[in-house]
Amino acid sequence: MPLDRPDPETPGAALRSVIAGRRSVRVYAPDGVPQAALERLLQAAVSAPSAHNRQPWRFAVLRAAERKAALARAMGARLAEDRRRDGDDAAAIARDVARSFARIAGAPVVLVVCASAAEMDAYPDAARAEAEFLMAVQSTAMAAQNLLLAAQAEGLAACWMCAPLFCGEVVAECLALPADWRPQGLITLGYPAAPGRERGRKPLGDVAIER
Q1: Among candidates 94, 130, 114, which has minimal Cα distance to 180?
Q2: Using 50, 70 and 90 to split pLDDT, how confident is the model at 4?
Q3: Which domains does the chain have, with CATH numbers?
Q4: What is the largest CA-CA distance in the chain?
Q5: Strands across the sheet with 57-62, in order?
Q6: Predicted confidence band at 42 (pLDDT cuts at 50, 70, 90)?
Q7: Is 52 helix (H, G, I), strand (E, B) or coil?
Q8: d(CA 37, CA 9)
Q9: pLDDT at residue 87 is higher than 60
Q10: Contact indicator for 189, 108 with CB cutoff of 8 Å
């Protein structure tokens, strides 16, 4: 006898609507994010699956303007240093640094998403040790995606930024993070000042195969 299955047009339709409606939004209204809403987002994040159920995700929540500005300045300084080393145009560097500062410092909430390998399995060889850390990274990414979708469902907007991967030690030092917290990205969060731009997606035939 087949198991009863939920009607895909009820909760399934709502979920598909949230997924389809999510956009990366970089400019926010000045309104703050209610604490209860933020806690619901974090609870959604930590409900993600994880390798060995070790739950390696970690989140640093930044609300204070001075803390967000300090992080944006530190990251911007590292960005400028790297771009100058690449020989890039000074004016282009200044524009990129200013844009990055505005996105981070202008968001009502910034969530720095980190992965910790402290509770992951340890291996003596480099190949398995790297695979184990990648498992922590994958688990953390799933938690971040949960949070992005929960934000959409709450009527909030968010944007995932990968920049901390290029300056993890700068982020960790600026925020005095625990030693095992490895910054993976940051999420800017708030109520949208304008709708995000829809981005095209490759057709399934280009990205999925059957074997």
Answers
A1: 114
A2: low
A3: 24-63+108-194 (3.40.109.10)
A4: 70
A5: 57-62, 109-116, 181-190, 157-161
A6: very high
A7: helix
A8: 26
A9: yes
A10: yes
pLDDT of 2 reads 44
Beta bridge partners of 59: 113
Helix, strand, coil shares of the chain as percentages rounded to 5?
50, 15, 35
Token duo for residue 206: 């280009």
- Residue 122 · residue 129 · CB < 8 Å: yes
| 142-184 pLDDT, tens digit each | 999 999 999 999 999 999 999 999 999 999 999 999 999 999 9
Distances (CA, A) of 187 to 9, 26, 31, 113: 31, 10, 17, 7
How many other C-beta atoms can be found within 10 angstroms of the C-beta atom of residue 106? 19
- The number of beta carbons lying within 10 Å of the beta carbon of residue 144 is 22
* Local structure of 153: helix, strand or coil: helix
Distance, in Å, from the CA atom of 159 to the CA atom of 190, rounded to the nearest integer, reads 10
Average pLDDT, integer, range 123-146: 97
> Distance (Å, rounded) from C-alpha 154 to C-alpha 27?
17
Residues 6+ apart with CB under 8 A from 159: 24, 25, 26, 103, 187, 188
Q: Which two tokens stand for residue 3?
A: 């198991």
